Automatic annotation (TrEMBL):
Species, as recorded: Cyclocybe aegerita
Swiss-Prot/TrEMBL keywords: Heme, Iron, Metal-binding, Monooxygenase, Oxidoreductase
Protein name (record): Cytochrome P450
CDD domains found in the cross-reference section: CYP64-like (cd11065)
GO molecular function terms noted in the UniProt entry: heme binding; iron ion binding; monooxygenase activity; oxidoreductase activity, acting on paired donors, with incorporation or reduction of molecular oxygen
Key word Oxidoreductase present: yes
Pathway this chain belongs to: Secondary metabolite biosynthesis
InterPro entries according to UniProt: Cyt_P450 (IPR001128), Cyt_P450_E_grp-I (IPR002401), Cyt_P450_sf (IPR036396), Cytochrome_P450_fung (IPR050364)
PANTHER family: P450, PUTATIVE (EUROFUNG)-RELATED (PTHR46300:SF7), P450, PUTATIVE (EUROFUNG)-RELATED-RELATED (PTHR46300)
Taxonomic lineage of the native organism: Eukaryota, Fungi, Dikarya, Basidiomycota, Agaricomycotina
Length: 376
């Protein structure tokens, strides 16, 4: 099995690797934060703003609490109509826009889903400006979040050179990304505020939060700044991973038509003719659920999960983790563990089935595929 955790020591520059999966779960608590305080100069230049929004500095607890209040399992069911509409629009897009790449259609569906949930925005079938600006920022966040991508991360003195100087491309990119990020944060948020004033607003995370402010809700989580930042973070957190997972699922099914045949047979047997599956049908579709689990495991969207920075020194089962260390989990190694998942490189939804039902003895890929640490 490959190493499942890397610990990069900020003070010495040396690294340690460990097979101890328990180490990762044990140290990942309130003592760590997402990349805050690292020496990533591009991240910092791009983002005092980005840290505040995506990584929650310094308001992370308030933002996490608002996410929990608005998106916990008991509330998220309210957004099922948007999810169903987006998924069924995707099926229509496959028929109506045959000239477009499959991934383009999936990406549009992901953007439609998140923009609808976060802002109540109904996107255009093609060339939607909100999806376009969001895609630009997802690419920027992805590039900026990788430690060592730019030379300045290794040679910190380069942060002092002017932006026009040769080799300072990172500074120019960071400025460009920051301007684009500000547009992504403010544009849809201001659109919701205008819709509320005209009385034409659709239900969404943002509209519900702003309405609570109007109702005089006494809670520090319900401020325009916090609501705006959390809504912007939703897209950055969910769009690319959604596209990746659905694409992997389609690839796996095309490469293993026997699994596709089983899925179709289950749907034909359990769903009324002329109807599409709904959330209420999930308990009667165990093989479809197994396909979802295998898609999350087989080609995990974030094989190397988001690095986290240890704020204080810690110790777990004999491992001393110095303060200032960056901890990087290897989710791919966890989900390709032959002890947990025999023949891990094979797309095989049946590994999660037993006697026609979901096998609860097989570890759910959700333990690693969604990342680590507290969500709220």
């Amino acid at each position: 099995m490959a190493d499942v955790v890397w610990v990069l020591k900020a003070a010495t520059g040396h690294g340690e690797r460990t097979h101890g999966m328990g180490l990762w779960y044990g140290i990942y608590d309130i003592r760590s934060g997402q990349m805050q305080g690292t020496d990533g100069k591009v991240q910092k230049e791009f983002c005092t703003l980005l840290n505040s929004i995506i990584y929650g500095v310094p308001r992370r607890r308030t933002q996490r609490r608002l996410i929990h209040l608005s998106l916990h399992p008991g509330v998220v069911t309210e957004y099922r109509p948007q999810l169903l509409r987006a998924s069924r629009n995707l099926l229509n897009r496959f028929l109506d826009f045959e000239d477009e790449h499959v991934i383009t259609n999936i990406r549009h569906m992901a953007g439609e889903t998140i923009l609808s949930v976060a802002y109540g925005i109904e996107v255009k079938p093609r060339d939607d400006p909100y999806i376009a600006i969001s895609e630009e920022n997802v690419k920027a966040v992805t590039a900026a979040a990788i430690p060592g991508t730019y030379l300045v991360d290794s040679l910190p003195f380069l942060k002092y050179i002017p932006s026009w100087f040769p080799g300072a491309e990172w500074k120019r990119k960071a400025k460009e990304w920051k301007e684009s990020l500000i547009v992504m944060i403010n544009s849809p948020f201001e659109s919701v505020k205008r819709d509320i004033m005209t009385g034409c607003v659709l239900p969404s995370f943002t509209s519900k939060g702003l309405q609570k402010i109007q109702e005089g809700k006494k809670d520090v989580a319900y401020t325009e700044e916090i609501i705006r930042n959390v809504a912007a973070a939703m897209y950055s957190a969910g769009s690319d991973t959604t596209v990746s997972t659905i694409s992997s699922c389609m690839l796996g099914l095309l490469d293993h038509p026997e699994a596709l045949e089983k899925a179709q047979a289950e749907i034909d047997a359990m769903i009324k003719p002329g109807h599409l599956p709904d959330f209420e049908d999930e308990p009667s579709l165990p093989y479809i659920t197994a396909i979802v689990k295998e898609s999350l495991r087989w080609m995990v969207a974030l094989p190397i999960s988001i690095p986290h920075y240890l704020e204080v020194e810690d110790e777990y089962q004999g491992y001393r983790i110095p303060a200032g260390s960056i901890i990087i989990p290897n989710a791919w190694a966890m989900l390709q563990d032959e002890k947990e998942y025999p023949d891990p490189s094979v797309f095989n939804p049946d590994r999660f089935m037993k006697d026609g039902k979901l096998n609860k003895d097989i570890r759910d890929p959700a333990h690693a595929c969604w990342g680590f640490g507290r969500r709220y």
